[in-house]
Amino acid sequence: MHANHGRRDRRPVFRRAAMLFAALAVVAAGCADVAGDTPASAATRAAAVKTFLPNAKFDYQISTGYTPASGVKVVSRDVKDTPAGLGYDICYINGFQTQPDEKGSDGQPLEGTSKWFADDASRKQLLLPNPTPDYPTATENQQYSKPYYVDPGWPDEIIFDLRTDAKRAALAAIVGKQIQACADKKFDAVEVDNLDSFTRAYSNLSDRKLAREGKEPKEGAPRLMSKSDALAFATLLIQKAHGLNLAIAQKNTAELADEGKAAGFDLAVVEECGSTSECGDYAEVWGGNWVDIEYSASGFSKACTAVKSKISVVQRDKNVTKPGTDGYVYNEC
């Protein structure tokens, strides 16, 4: 999910296979310190992270940073921003899919954007391919949604291919640079959007068509990637964060809350548990170590009723804008 938007719950055959895996091996070498962690060392590093502030007033500022309302202690901001410094700072990054295109001051695509991946012979092979390039995975931005599997609701964001150890290691090295940037800026934790990306990558064309139209395929619809793929990749990111003394938040995916916590996530950043009636599921696993963002008045009311005494629940506008902007919303219960 791009930092300018709220998330509503975030191949072609290559003949030179030997060149692909050689290239991936080089990138994967940068992850050797992560992949080589033992459970004991990972646990030790997790113990060194800053403890979350349960039920502390929260603000979600992933579009742009601004002075929070009085009493706010926990703030989430984009990696390109700086910490608020009010108690506990969470750093937002895209971890399971690309960022929408954006250029740097030199006119070149910024690292981690769709174009940065797609324009490079080795990096584009880390993107999940569209099994039917003649039928784009989204109605918009078909330069990406024809060859690659974009997130149906976010056609500027291409889902990462997490199906092999080599690709997971290569991607962890790339995403790891963003995690490093969070640590360098002195954030306390990182939220990695979005663990459930794999759930929107459907194997069958009929299901892809439904998703493209904004409809939900039947429960249990086969997918191109598995939860095991997602959790294996998440484990690499968890180890990277803990190695930098950063806590790391699971982003959404109530059905994997137990497994996410077991993998090493320290807290959760959740969107719309009121709207999806999943607040109790998160509370059962995370206690007070999570926050919830709602984008509708009805979802906000439901979430406040369900978990008001346990965590901070906020209502934000879907574009996560700053005060003074048309459409800005911030409520907290």
What is the secondary structure topology, with strand pairs?
Layout: H1 17-29, H2 32-35, H3 39-47, E1 58-61, E2 74-78, E3 88-94, H4 114-118, H5 142-145, E4 150-151, E5 154-158, H6 165-184, E6 189-193, H7 205-212, H8 227-243, E7 247-251, H9 257-263, E8 267-271, H10 273-276, H11 279-286, E9 290-294, H12 297-307, E10 312-316, E11 330-332
Parallel strand pairs: 1-2, 2-3, 3-6, 6-7, 7-8, 8-9, 9-10
Antiparallel strand pairs: 4-5, 10-11
Radius of gyration: 19 Å
What structural class do helix, strand and pairing data support?
alpha/beta
Mean pLDDT: 88
Spatial strand sequence of the major β-sheet: 1-2-3-6-7-8-9-10-11
Run of helices and strands: HHHEEEHHEEHEHHEHEHHEHEE
The second-level CATH architecture is Alpha-Beta Barrel
Total of DSSP H or I helical runs spanning 4+ residues? 12
**N-end to C-end Cα span:** 25 Å
Helix content: 25-40%
Poorly predicted segments: 1-40
Largest sheet: 9 strands, mixed
CATH topology type: TIM Barrel
- Total domains, how many? 1
CATH superfamily: Aldolase class I
What's the overall geometry?
globular
Which CATH class?
Answer: Alpha Beta
Q: How much of the residues is beta strand, in percent?
A: 15-25%
Counted beta strands: 11
